Amino acid sequence: MGSFLFSRLLSAVVVIVGVVCLVFMLIHLVPGDPVDVMLGESAMPADREALRSSLGLDRPLAVQLAEYLRGVAVLDLGRSLHAKQAVAELLAERIPATLELAFAALVITLLIAIPLGIFAAVNRGRVADWGAMGFSMLGMSIPNFWLGPMLILCFSLWLGWTPVSGREGMSSLILPAVTLGMSFAAILARMVRSSLLEVLDEDFVRTARAKGLDERRVVWRHAMGNAWLPVITLVGLQLGALLGGAVVTEVVFDWPGIGSLMIESIQKRDYPVVQGCVLFISLAYVLVNTLTDLVYGLVDPRIHGGGRR
Amino acid sequence: MIRRWIPYLLIALWGMAALIGPWFSEAGNVIDLEKILQPPGPAALLGYDDLGRSILLRLVAGAQTSFIVAVGVVGFSALVGSLIGLLAGYHGGWLDLLLVRVIDIFLAFPGILLAIALAGVMGPGIDNLIIALSVVGWVGYARLARGQVLSLKRRDHVMAAVALGSSRLTILTKHLLPLLMAPLIVEATFGMAGMVIAEAGLSFLGLGIQSPQASWGSMIRDGAGYMLMAPHMVLAPGVTIMLVVLSLNLLGDRLRDYLDIRLPKSAH
């Protein structure tokens, strides 16, 4: 167990260092001179030099990278070019909104996916199964930048039930959460179905049925109890993916989170902030994935021995 | 069973629209102030947008954009990704360790986040869009190819080829690659669906195709401001994207069943 924990944490550290290096490289992908792009051609030479040295672009690449890594370690992500504020501060202002949205979307995902998946599996091959999986296929194929506007049109503009955009109270959270959660719910529902179907074929389920247990007890206690593992992994992966998918949803609903900060900063060519946003979301993703792996390892004793690859 | 053929028909329509798209890109940009926001009717099948441009013609022109991006990105990522995966899985040892680390690092960026950042930093345009999405896209194919090779290289026919002294290149291209094709084709079909959404998504965010060139995503973005007056501006491109993606997903599902493959479910 100890070595499993150690190897998982070690590989997480390697990945984190790699992620930071990639994010660092982003600013060097700006076509031409990043300083020109950020300040415009008409900027004063003195301003250019000041920005160049504050971004560290006048130093060798290796030194810049070392500086950036050191900065990230102490949560110093540089300063915004427009807000005249530290990037870390800007991020801290927006993090609660993104986390709130991601958790709400996760709750919606689970509320839709688990009943739908179980319903489909129990009715395998019947019209109900076909309908549930058709619904899930549809959910996977609807892009969230279209679902969002459509929900706004129905529930905000026509029915007037929810605000069109912004973040004011529970009612403003519902549509963004549904928009963000829909495609994940669709994927998860299929996972729950196939996972449960696999377990329903096992001998112990037949035994439970043979004992005369009623079907509800067989499905919920005996079968689902063993079908949770792959579902937990996917939920963990999804919580992280929800943070990434939130970018588009936040823009659609003008939700004041990290995603909309990132797009605003791209438009203003405020690259240190863009780097900060990518870094935060990716690190959160790595963290959630590592935790999921560890929980999976704890729950399933078969894992620690061999490793998962 | 006509229903079975609907997805194939829709994908063929998409491809055909992409082929004839270049002839419509000019017509789709023609501004007619008389027809601003005109709803669909007998005279104009899908109506007109906020600048009086025909939505049907812009959908056809946009099909070209989404097709080029989807085929370009999937083709490039599948080629590069599976070669890397093949190499890692077959060579093993330090090379495998190194490549797996690189794959892990790229997988640490959720969804299209990295593509958004790359497209945002490199600037708009179809070529930058393809680069940004390929940088993110190759990883899935690499992971898939590596996993497959790890199990395939213990097969008898590969061992026999090794024992007979076949060169490494022959083994990789003649004995391993053909067996890899089936799962790669299935993954690529789902990948096309993902890329249609990704292209439209980036263009929706203003990071992809620039106006006046048509993209389904930027059409939704333009229409979002006129939803009460002219819902057709958002409905038409949205339904189009959904139908194409749905068809590709259905095709992928059928191919998977037909070729009898079990893929790890990729989280988009």
From TrEMBL, chain B:
InterPro entries named among the record's database cross-references: BP-dependent_transpt_permease, MetI-like, MetI-like_sf
Keyword Cytoplasm: no
Biological process, per Gene Ontology: transmembrane transport
CDD domains in alphabetical order: TM_PBP2 (cd06261)
Compartmental location: Cell membrane
SUPFAM superfamilies linked: MetI-like
Superkingdom in the source lineage: Bacteria
Descriptive protein name: ABC transporter permease
Source organism (scientific name): Candidatus Thiodiazotropha taylori
